[in-house]
Design a protein that fits this description.
The complex is a heterodimer of chains A (about 110) and B (about 110).
Chain A lengths: L3 E2 L5 E4 L4 E7 L6 E7 L6 E6 L3 E5 L2 E6 L4 E6 L8 E8 L8 E2 L3 E6 L1
Parallel strand pairs in A: 2-11
Antiparallel strand pairs in A: 1-3, 3-8, 4-5, 4-9, 6-7, 7-8, 9-10, 9-11
Chain B lengths: L3 E4 L2 E4 L5 E7 L5 E8 L3 E8 L6 E2 L6 E5 L5 E5 L8 E8 L6 E2 L3 E5 L1
Parallel strand pairs in B: 2-11
Antiparallel strand pairs in B: 1-3, 3-8, 4-5, 4-9, 5-6, 7-8, 9-10, 9-11
Classes of the chains: A mainly beta (about 110), B mainly beta (about 110).
Chain lengths: ~110, ~110
C-alpha cells in the first residue's frame, strides 16, 4: 500500500467551477501536509501547506485536513485554464522535511 | 532572486559514463535535497543534506554520491551511469519543516 494515495485523473472541470483534489495517507502520526502544482515539463511549485485540522484558505485555494480520517484535500474555486496541471500531495510524517512523502499526483484539466 | 538553480537542464550519457549535477540555492536554507521523478513512481528522495557538512541517504541512493560543498551548493554525482538512472532530477531546498523549493530540473537520458 502506497503511503500517500491520489487518484491519477485526469479530473476534468469546466472553467469557473470548483475543482476538488483528494489525498489519503497511511501514517496516522503525520504532522504537516503540502500541495504542489506541477505544469508539464516544469518543476513542482509549493502552493499550500496545512498543519492542523480544518480549512486553510489562500486566494482561490483552500486546503482541508482531517487527521481522524487521514485525508487532505485541495479545493480550487473559479477554476481557470491556467490551473490545468498535475497536483502533488506531500505528507511529512514527523516534522522532518527529509521524510516528506509524495503522492503520484492528480492531473487536472480545466475546460473552456 | 534566483531561488534554486540546477545545471545542466538536459544531458545524454552512455552507459558507464560519469557526470555531476550541480545545484545552488540563494535562500539561505539549511537543508537541500536531490529527488528523481519517474512516470508512475512520483518523486523519490535520493540524498539529502540537513545542514552544511552532513549528508544522508534517502529512499533510492544506490548508484549516486553527493557533496554538500557549502551552505549554498549541493551536487549529485553518477559515477557509472546506467539506463535505470534515466529520469528527471530535481534539486530542492527547505528551512525547518516548511515545504520544499525546487530547481527547474535536469532531464537525463542514459543510453
Amino acid at each position: 500500500q502506497k503511503e500517500v494515495e491520489q487518484n491519477s485523473g485526469p479530473l476534468s472541470v469546466p472553467e469557473g467551477a470548483i475543482a476538488s483534489l483528494n489525498c489519503t495517507y497511511s501514517d496516522r502520526g503525520s504532522q504537516s501536509f503540502f500541495w504542489y502544482r506541477q505544469y508539464s515539463g516544469k518543476s513542482p511549485e509549493l502552493i499550500m501547506s496545512i498543519y492542523s485540522n480544518g480549512d486553510k484558505e489562500d486566494g482561490r485555494f483552500t486546503a482541508q485536513l482531517n487527521k481522524a480520517s487521514q485525508y487532505v484535500s485541495l479545493l480550487i474555486r473559479d477554476s481557470q485554464p491556467s490551473d490545468s496541471a498535475t497536483y502533488l500531495c506531500a505528507v511529512n510524517p514527523d516534522g522532518t522535511a527529509s521524510k516528506l512523502t509524495f503522492g503520484t499526483g492528480t492531473r487536472l484539466q480545466v475546460m473552456l | 532572486n534566483a531561488g534554486v538553480t540546477q545545471t545542466p537542464k538536459f544531458q545524454v550519457l552512455k552507459t558507464g559514463q560519469s557526470m555531476t549535477l550541480q545545484c545552488a540555492q540563494d535562500m539561505n536554507h539549511n537543508s537541500m535535497y536531490w529527488y528523481r521523478q519517474d512516470p508512475g513512481m512520483g518523486l523519490r528522495l535520493i540524498y539529502y543534506s540537513a545542514s552544511e557538512g552532513t549528508t544522508d541517504k534517502g529512499e533510492v541512493p544506490n548508484g549516486y554520491n553527493v557533496s554538500r560543498l557549502n551552505k549554498r551548493e549541493f551536487s549529485l554525482r553518477l559515477e557509472s551511469a546506467a539506463p535505470s538512472q534515466t529520469s528527471v532530477y530535481f534539486c530542492a531546498s527547505s528551512e525547518g519543516q516548511g515545504g520544499l523549493f525546487f530547481g527547474s530540473g535536469t532531464q537525463l537520458s542514459v543510453l
